[in-house]
Specification:
Layout (H helix, E strand, L loop, with lengths): L6 E6 L9 E7 L1 H7 L25 E3 L11 E2 L8 H42 L16 H14 L1 H38 L9
Antiparallel strand pairs: 1-2, 1-3, 3-4
Helix pairs in contact: 2-3, 2-4
């Protein structure tokens, strides 16, 4: 068995407000990578386990892991500054909670999609008098026109669910954007205060 790692976390620059792209990637072992991915959700799909990966103490960056096998989303370990302000903590907490919420939604949605798709394919093959696999053991598949019927049905069936997800997603991101603006404003104010020797304090926002 090769010792080459199969998983990794990408290091991300923090300026400004954790928005910029990735810097050179840092790899971790295959065993560690399995611990980095969020665990499989419970039967109800309400539980999301945070990554167990812990960056080095001297790290000043966010870390981005490989896509989760169920949600297809990359987990993020957010950097905690030494002198984290209350606003910065609020921002980091909301971003982490939003990531967990997003992961849980797409994990459950993808599981449901795959189960219903497999059931649809089997039912269509059965109607044709075919088995799941051909004489060579290969899995049979439907053509694009046949699958389009399933895709439309799935989208129609989940229309309200997806609409509610989008509303929540935009609401969360709007709040995150506002918090990021407040954090940036306070950081600029603090820098100016330190340079000019103003009395300790912060602007009202």
């Amino acid at each position: 068995m090769s010792g080459k790692p199969t998983g990794y976390f990408l290091r991300r620059s923090l300026w400004p407000c954790n928005l910029l792209g990735t810097l050179p990637m840092r790899r971790i072992s295959a065993n560690a990578s399995r611990r980095c991915s969020s665990s499989e959700p419970t039967k109800q799909g309400n539980s999301v386990k945070r990554s167990q990966f812990i960056p080095a103490a001297e790290s000043k960056h966010d870390w981005i892991g490989p896509p989760h096998r169920l949600s297809n989303l990359r987990p993020i370990i957010y950097h905690i500054p030494e002198n984290e302000t209350e606003l910065e903590k609020q921002l980091r907490t909301l971003r982490r909670e939003t990531e967990d919420w997003n992961h849980a939604f797409w994990t459950n949605q993808n599981i449901t999609f795959n189960k219903e798709k497999d059931a649809f394919v089997l039912s269509q093959l059965k109607e044709k008098g075919l088995t799941e696999r051909d004489e060579k053991g290969r899995k049979r598949a439907l053509n694009s026109e046949e699958m389009a019927v399933f895709y439309k049905h799935f989208l129609d069936e989940n229309c309200i669910r997806h609409a509610n997800y989008n509303k929540n997603w935009y609401r969360r991101n709007f709040t995150i954007t506002l918090l990021m603006g407040r954090v940036a404003f306070h950081n600029v104010w603090r820098t100016l205060a330190e340079r000019r020797g103003w009395k300790k304090g912060s602007p009202t926002t």
